[in-house]
Amino acid sequence: MLTGKQKRFLRSKAHHIHPIFQVGKGGVNSNLVKQVDEALEARELIKVSVLQNCEDDKDTVASQLSSGSKAELVQVIGSTIVLYKESVNQKRIQLP
Question: Which of 2, 18, 54, 86 is the most exposed place for a label (fewest CB within 10 A)?
């Protein structure tokens, strides 16, 4: 689990990155979860955008993605989800 200080640090890091996935009409499926997990391994911190035509609400999508990829949910702001998972091979972010 992340502390409040760590979440603040990750939110400030995530501010400048753009969403690399969009969840639309199809919702969350196993293929999307696999791709998110691979992206987290490469980058550690990613943003996911939830489109307006998505049938699930953003909080449901956030919990499905974070539990499916075993990542920490940093923040849900607007229609954007910020996820963090410590990389095994390519550690870049040092948490405070």
Answer: 18
| Statement: the pTM of the whole predicted model exceeds 0.85 | yes
Identity (one letter) of the amino acid at 94? Q
Domains of the chain: 4-84 (3.30.110.60)
pLDDT in tens, 38-55: 999 999 999 999 999 999
Round to the nearest angstrom and report the end-to-end CA distance of the chain: 13
Q: For residue 51, which of 41, 43, 61 has the smallest C-alpha distance? A: 61
DSSP type of residue 18: P
